[in-house]
Design goal:
Blueprint lengths: L15 H8 L11 E7 L2 E9 L3 E8 L12 E2 L6 E7 L6 E8 L5 E4 L15 E2 L10 H5 L1 H5 L6 E5 L1 H4 L12 H15 L3 E4 L3 E2 L12 E5 L6 H13 L3 E6 L25 H4 E2 L4 E2 L6 H16 L5 E4 L2 H5 L21 H17 L4 E4 L21 E3 L1 H12 L10 H4 L1 H4 L5 E5 L11 H4 L4 H17 L3 E5 L24 H19 L13 E5 L7 E7 L5 E8 L5 E8 L3 E8 L15 E4 L10 E7 L3 E8 L22
Parallel strand pairs: 9-10, 9-20, 10-13, 13-16, 16-17, 17-18, 18-19, 19-20
Antiparallel strand pairs: 1-2, 2-5, 3-6, 4-5, 6-7, 6-8, 11-12, 14-15, 21-22, 22-23, 23-28, 24-27, 25-26, 25-28
Helix pairs in contact: 5-6, 8-10, 15-16
Length: 663
């Protein structure tokens, strides 16, 4: 240091090319350059610090190693007009606690900020960053080599969505959150036994307010300290992969909280957010909105996305609240928003950002996926950017979810008047690459649990849930189920305590859990249920007109067209004997799943293992007919392998901007 306490000769990690890419918004590995990095300089170990604060008059590193004195370790402002301050502090090692002390050029603003690129943070409510490394000996090589097969659009994807802090806790210490390492063996055993292909974690990025469930993110490069350190999360993901379970992370680029130690007003100016409140403040969440038109902000966010795929081996990012990014008037009244340069309501900068985000992630990580939570009818969310799409791999089907839950909420006697709620989804089912979500959003904020949404007595509620899940697993689209729904959690989900695992002592609830397990097993074993999710050739109605009986029936087919399933759903508590449906071929149709089996808590109505098709025309559409027993509030699935040569193989769906998977 010189006499003024300024760190001399920083020997930067940043090259001139890094700065060039950063300033034009095209540096997407910024986590390798900015933030705190353990290095060696002139034979001395220490930490190199760098932070973007272009409107600062002075920046210092303060921490437990210098008694939080802003005069001891001042950073140097680069001379290239990048706005980056940097410096090397010897003998500052792993575990050191620090912040950036920023004196602004504007309004005499002075503040201590956590590191926007910090790899690790203090345990909340403390707010400082922690010097850390990302060293870890990964053991998931086999998974990485097969990642495309696990994550491709024509693969089975059954997602178990969970919140780490409330999935399970130690009954002897119910207030304590289990760590990543403690959760690993329990979660792996359960997910494997249940047959889910992937888990999706509500945001595990560091967040100051625990009841936000992680959706008020501030640590865009840090896993939450509440559950352990960086390597502990790596261990959890590594072990999941070694047990053939994919990992999806929720990621929130739509807004960030306004806590003083965070990104807001970072250097005394609106650096990460818009200065205009009509553009930079979100009325729903009382949070700040990123300025997607600023090059450095786009590079920051895309670097964060890259980081979780690169350093933590995530298989997919589910992007939260995409609709709030796309529309300038989202949740705003007239006069509370600013039209775009063309006079419209579309957020052109956010659209450009999302397209660039998807292009870059699929370029660098072609075997992963991006999934949009987009709640409107915005066109071509999952279509390539080259033809005007947003470039996502998949999108949550919020329309299917809302219509389906509204239908199931009706008393069974009234359902015949609302059958279009079920059948309408097929009209648009192949317009996007859809995930069918029964997510956390449907069991919070006074909405009640899925169990509570079902009409009837306790038996009918569980029968309705079995029917709902059977309908979802056989409907085109990938599957997502929030924790607790698989065994009929009674109460609304709360982040404050564990799920009600004691319900599994009730044979009826244990039967529901076994039903979801067997649905997953059938789903993963039958290509007809997943290969053609995004192609209309994989679905065919048998009959959707029988509203009087509240019955629908349809076929699901694999790519060859030879392996076929017939699905019949009875949405009333009345068993139907000798019910006729049409099929394409004669012979024996095996009953492979029946939600009314006694093992699942049902009444035992069934078809004795299968039915022989009769050579009788069905409405002129099919040459053969099955006469079946439909169980009350039940779904039955029949399987047939067609004879004769295979049909022409359908085109394999592909993710935007990626090559088609090899056979």
């Amino acid at each position: 240091m010189n006499k003024q306490g300024t760190l001399s000769e920083p020997s930067s990690l940043l090259t001139d090319h890094d700065i060039y890419l950063f300033k034009e918004g095209n540096h997407f590995r910024l986590y390798e350059k900015l933030g705190a990095h353990l290095v060696e300089r002139a034979g001395r170990r220490g930490t190199f610090f760098s932070v973007w604060a272009p409107n600062a008059a002075q920046v210092s590193v303060v921490g437990d190693f210098n008694q939080w004195d802003p005069h001891t370790h001042r950073l140097t402002n680069r001379s290239d007009e990048s706005g980056i301050w940097e410096g090397f502090i010897p003998d500052v090692g792993k575990g050191a606690v620090y912040k950036y002390h920023i004196v602004s050029n504007h309004n005499h603003y002075v503040v201590d900020k956590a590191d926007p690129f910090g790899f690790f943070w203090e345990l909340p409510p403390n707010t400082a960053s922690v010097v850390w490394d990302l060293d870890y000996a990964w053991g998931d090589d086999r998974w990485q080599q097969q990642q495309r097969r696990h994550n491709s659009l024509d693969a089975p994807m059954s997602i178990y969505e969970l919140h780490l802090g409330s999935w399970r806790r130690d009954p002897s210490e119910p207030e304590r959150l289990l760590s990543y390492r403690e959760l690993a063996p329990m979660l792996i055993e359960y997910v494997r036994e249940m047959g889910f292909t992937h888990v999706e974690f509500l945001p595990i990025m560091e967040h100051p307010f625990y009841p936000s469930w992680g959706y008020q993110t501030l640590g865009y490069f840090a896993p939450s300290r509440r559950y352990g350190c960086c390597q502990d999360l790596m261990y959890l993901i590594d072990m999941l992969h070694q047990n053939d379970i994919g990992v999806i992370l929720d990621w929130v680029p739509s807004h960030f909280p306004t806590d003083e130690h965070g990104l807001i007003y970072f250097d005394g100016t609106h650096l990460f957010e818009h200065a205009d409140r009509r553009l930079g403040f979100h009325p729903d969440w009382k949070s700040a909105i990123f300025n997607y038109g600023r090059n450095e902000v786009r590079a920051y966010l895309i670097s964060s996305a890259m980081f979780w795929l690169d350093k933590y081996h995530a298989d997919a990012l589910r992007v939260d609240a995409v609709a709030s990014m796309l529309y300038l008037d989202y949740s705003r009244k007239e006069g509370e928003w600013v039209p775009n340069r063309e006079g419209g309501r579309e957020n052109l900068e956010a659209i450009a950002f999302l397209r660039r985000f998807n292009e870059m992630l699929y370029r660098d990580f072609p075997d992963t996926q991006t999934i949009a939570e987009e709640s409107t009818a915005w066109p071509m969310v999952t279509r390539p950017t080259s033809i005007g799409g947003l470039g996502f791999g998949m999108k949550w089907n919020m329309g299917w979810m809302h219509d389906t839950l509204k239908y199931f909420a009706h008393d069974c006697v009234h359902r015949k008047y609302h059958q279009d709620k079920l059948t309408f989804s097929i009209w648009y089912a192949f317009s996007e690459n859809f995930v069918l979500p029964l997510s956390h959003d449907e069991v919070v904020h006074g909405k009640g649990s899925l169990y509570g949404k079902m009409p009837g007595d306790a038996w009918q509620k569980l029968a309705n849930l079995r029917l709902l899940y059977g309908y979802m697993y056989t409907h085109p689209g990938k599957k997502l189920l929030f924790m607790g729904a698989e065994f009929g959690q009674h109460g609304e989900w709360s982040h404050k305590h564990s799920l009600d695992w004691h319900l599994l002592q009730d044979p009826q609830h244990e039967g529901l859990r076994q039903w979801v397990r067997d649905l997953n097993r059938l789903y993963r074993s039958e290509p007809a249920l997943f290969e053609m999710d995004f192609h209309k050739e994989g679905f065919e109605w048998i009959d959707f007109h029988d509203a009087d009986n509240s019955v629908i029936s349809f076929l699901r087919k694999d790519k060859t067209g030879r392996h076929i399933l017939a699905v019949i759903c009875n949405f009333t508590p009345v068993p139907r004997l000798n019910y006729h449906i049409g099929v394409a071929e004669g012979g024996f149709w095996q009953e492979v799943l029946n939600s009314d089996a006694r093992d699942y808590g049902g009444s035992g109505h069934g078809n004795m293992g299968g039915v022989e098709a009769s050579p009788a025309s069905f409405y002129g559409n099919f040459d053969y007919t099955l006469s079946v027993i439909l169980p009350p509030l039940g779904v039955v699935v029949f399987k047939k392998e067609l004879s004769g040569p295979p049909k022409t193989k359908a085109e394999t769906p592909v993710s935007p901007e990626r090559p088609e998977p090899s056979e």
